[in-house]
Specification:
The complex is a heterodimer of chains A (109) and B (119). Chain A is built from no helices and eleven strands. With 109 residues, chain A is mainly beta. Chain B contains no helices and eleven strands. The N and C termini of chain B lie far apart (37 Å). The chains are: A mainly beta (109), B mainly beta (119). Chains A and B meet through strand 5, strand 9 and strand 10 of A and strand 5, strand 9 and strand 10 of B.
């Protein structure tokens, strides 16, 4: 069964303190790993898709990387507006996604 | 990116009543829409996949007679929670994918969600 595990569950950072979020997965035949950002009471907002080990994608202060077993979302010099829950999902075919529980990031000024 | 809307954004109803939630793709035709449910501090759980003009496909454990899904057009899908009970209280989110020829990353575009509270 496809599984996605995210760690840590919650992370508090000071503004400017860089860190990484982890997403480990078990899926037969990865066909895409997705990162989303979700603000409280809102739907997820698409950030990145990664398809193969070694692939990297960047957007502003965020950088996503992928290995054969896990993905990392690196946050460089975060700002308070980066506070949100970051969700990882794997594409399991038939256009369906399997989501992890997310990492709640809080960036203090 | 593509925009998906949901209506209403929140609803409170009495136990035993039915509630309809609408999901619309605003600037694209969505051949496939998805309905998710999210409990506090939990991940999004896929409930069903909805294709325009055909019956929805429900995930294991989801009661199709309780959660009625209608995908009447390429821009509208509705979820009706029938005979709602307090345990149905949750955050319901829909998503949609663009037609294959418009996709860049196979991503799903999510609506803002509907908070359902059943008293």
């Amino acid at each position: 069964e496809d599984q996605v595990t995210q760690s840590p569950e919650a992370l508090r950072l000071q503004e400017g303190e860089s860190s990484s979020l982890n997403c480990s997965y078990t899926v037969s035949g990865l066909r895409g790993l997705f990162w989303y950002r979700q603000d409280p009471g809102k739907g997820p907002e698409f950030l990145f898709t990664l398809y193969s080990a070694g692939e990297e994608k960047e957007k502003e202060r965020l950088k996503a990387t992928l290995t054969k077993k896990e993905s990392f979302l690196h946050i460089t010099a975060p700002k308070p507006e980066d506070s949100a829950t970051y969700l990882c999902a794997v594409y399991r075919g038939s256009e369906k996604l399997v989501f992890g529980k997310g990492t709640k990031l809080t960036v203090n000024p | 990116g593509a925009v998906v809307s949901q209506h209403p954004s929140w609803v409170i109803c009495k136990s035993g009543t039915s509630v309809k939630i609408e999901c619309r793709s605003l600037d694209f035709q969505a051949t496939t829409m998805f309905w998710y449910r999210q409990f506090p501090k939990q991940s999004l759980m896929l409930m069903a996949t909805s294709n325009e003009g055909s019956k929805a496909t429900y995930e294991q454990g989801v009661e199709k007679d309780k959660f009625l899904i209608n995908h009447a057009s390429l821009t509208l899908s509705t979820l009706t929670v029938t005979s709602a009970h307090p345990e149905d209280s949750s955050f319901y989110i829909c998503s949609a994918t663009e037609p294959p020829e418009r996709r860049r990353y196979n991503e799903q575009f999510f609506g803002p969600g509907t908070r359902l509270t059943v008293l």
